[in-house]
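Dear colleagues,

As part of the handover before I leave the project, I'm documenting each prediction I ran so the next person doesn't have to rerun anything. This entry is a single chain, and its sequence is reproduced below.
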Amino acid sequence: MTDLNSKKRCFTQIAEGDKKAFDVFFKYYYPKLIQFARIYVDSLPQAEDVVADVLTNILINRKRVFILDHFESYLYFSVKNKAISSIKRQQRENPFLFDSNDIILNSMAVTDPHELLVGQELQDQIDEIIRQFPPKRKMVFQLIREEGFTYRQVAELMNISERTVEVHLKLAVKELREGVENFLNDKKSRNDHLKAF
């Protein structure tokens, strides 16, 4: 399910009641939707609940939903709206809860203990930079860099221009690059200081 035609074919089959097609759809989209929901909600279980609700709803309405021209955008919008509703409900039930927006990137594969430590520190630094992105910038970054969306798809999904998408992504990459460079320079400076003793 990597190209547009195979996706549309799969969506049509699901609309017609093909269970195997839905299994393919589920396997492909479920992890992506969970990751997307995590932009909004604070915990993995909450993200799983949000996605389960959305998938249940679209399956019930599959004959109407899966034939939409922009089904993929509809799918992500549904997750976004359900996540926001979930947060609002949670805040009403417990106003002291907050959304930490923790974002987990792929961990670095290293075996040397020192490299592992430095790698983890760098990963923590990257996570912190992304966590502090403004919400729209974070969403653009996630959708393009981690979900593989095009500028046009993101623009449609977020109801902004492609130029605005491009600006958000450039700013995100610039902040990450500067943050990583500062981290590495600081690390080098500390190591040089230790070697002097």
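Residues 95-116 have pLDDT under 50 and may be disordered. Residues 141 and 169 are 6 Å apart (CA to CA).

All the best with the project,
I.
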